[in-house]
Specification:
alpha+beta, SH3 type barrels, 5 strands, 26% helix, 28% strand, globular, Rib_uL2_dom2, RNA-binding protein, Translation_prot_SH3-like_sf, ribonucleoprotein
């Protein structure tokens, strides 16, 4: 089963103490794992290794984070926090 996950994508753990929190994918390790950070508890210096099958993958992607990662620019924890806030705010406005 191939799941498309890209760096900069908004994800949310399905269960456990992290459930309900939002993260951005920082790096795709392989077909099963990603590194995710939220900019506060899980900072860029110590991202959380997450199993893809335990995550809810949202369709929202932080374009500014993707651009910085592709160009090799450094991203900060504040950039991640702002991107998550913007994406979550937009997601809550969508009709379900």
């Amino acid at each position: 089963m191939q799941v498309n996950v890209t760096p900069g994508q908004l994800v949310q753990p399905r269960a456990g103490r992290d459930s309900g929190k939002y993260y951005l994918v920082i790096k795709v390790l392989d077909d099963h794992y990603v590194l995710a950070a939220d900019g506060t508890v899980r900072r860029l210096e110590n991202p959380k290794k997450k199993n893809i099958k335990h995550l809810t993958l949202h369709t929202r992607i932080a374009g500014e984070i993707v651009d910085k990662l592709k160009s090799g620019d450094s991203i900060s924890n504040a950039d991640i926090r702002r991107a998550i806030e913007r994406l979550v705010g937009n997601e809550e406005e969508l009709p379900f």
